[in-house]
């Protein structure tokens, strides 16, 4: 009977030779890095490659600031740490104005204040604050302005022909030149003239000026 021979795979280890002579300083540094490289990557598991820190907000407020916001005492935000930006937010009219956080203005954040700059910093950002009631008033003002703009509409941005349910076309925005052969649609405004006849809109400010060539 023949004996079954199992061939063993031999792993040849490549020995890195001694550092050659006459290398430049940069070449020698590279050689040493190459020589010190090992097979440590073989022991790294897939789970170890997961970076759970990516789920964190990189610009998360300090814990003391979060507590003050939750209590609706103060509101905070980060701004770019530049003189121009700092002056801008400090000179805004109330309630848009912001103040710089330091150990005096917000004592609750004294432990988070940078000992050199005297404020709360994160990368190139600086922490500012305002009273929460002022923050709420500013947000309410912004919302009201947005609603007014949405209801009134910006005629210049509506520089086009619109069609109502009856199929009539209306012009809005800036001036339009209407040729002699063009058909111009008018619509009733719902108002009654002094002689009892309905008033038609055809060139008022709400629809733009119509000029006949």
Q: In summary, what is this structure?
A:
With 213 residues, the chain is of the alpha+beta class. It has helices at residues 25-36, 63-70, 83-90, 132-152, and strands spanning 74-80, 99-100, 121-122, 125-131, 161-163, 169-171, 176-178, 187-192, 198-201, 210-212. The N and C termini lie far apart (113 Å).
Structural notes for this entry:
With 213 residues, the protein is α+β, with helices and mostly antiparallel strands. Among the domains are: 63-151, no CATH class; 161-212, no CATH class. It is built from four helices and ten strands. The strands form four sheets. Strands 1, 2, 3 and 4 form a four-stranded antiparallel sheet that branches. It has a two-stranded antiparallel ribbon with strand order 5-6. Strand 8 (187-192) and strand 9 (198-201) form a beta hairpin. Mean pLDDT is 74; it is low at 173-178 and 200-213.
Q: Which regions have little confidence, pLDDT < 50, spanning 5+ residues?
A: 173-178, 200-213
- Kindly state the number of beta strands: 10
Q: What order do the helices and strands follow?
A: HHEHEEEHEEEEEE
Helix content: 10-25%
Sheet/helix structural class: alpha+beta
Shape: elongated
**First and last CA, distance:** 113 Å
Mean pLDDT: 74
Number of helices: 4
Secondary structure topology:
Blueprint: H1 25-36, H2 63-70, E1 74-80, H3 83-90, E2 99-100, E3 121-122, E4 125-131, H4 132-152, E5 161-163, E6 169-171, E7 176-178, E8 187-192, E9 198-201, E10 210-212
Parallel strand pairs: 7-10
Antiparallel strand pairs: 1-4, 2-4, 3-4, 5-6, 8-9
């Amino acid at each position: 009977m023949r004996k079954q021979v199992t061939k063993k795979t031999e792993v040849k280890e490549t020995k890195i030779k001694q550092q050659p002579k006459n290398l430049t300083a940069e070449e020698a540094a590279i050689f040493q890095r190459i020589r010190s490289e090992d097979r440590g990557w073989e022991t790294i598991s897939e789970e170890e490659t997961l970076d759970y820190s990516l789920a964190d907000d990189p610009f998360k407020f300090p814990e003391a600031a979060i507590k003050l916001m939750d209590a609706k005492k103060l509101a905070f935000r980060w701004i770019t740490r530049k003189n121009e930006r700092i002056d801008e937010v400090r000179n805004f009219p109330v309630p848009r104005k912001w103040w710089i956080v330091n150990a005096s203005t917000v004592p609750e954040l004294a432990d988070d204040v940078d000992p050199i700059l005297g404020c709360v910093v994160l990368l190139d950002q600086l922490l500012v604050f305002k009273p929460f009631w002022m923050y709420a008033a500013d947000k309410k003002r912004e919302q009201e302005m947005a609603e007014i703009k949405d209801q009134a509409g910006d005629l210049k941005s509506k520089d086009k022909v619109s069609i109502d349910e009856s199929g009539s076309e209306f012009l809005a925005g800036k001036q339009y030149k209407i040729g002699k052969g063009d058909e111009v649609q008018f619509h009733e405004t719902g108002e009654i003239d002094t002689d009892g006849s309905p008033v038609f809109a055809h060139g008022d400010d709400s629809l733009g000026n119509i000029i006949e060539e």
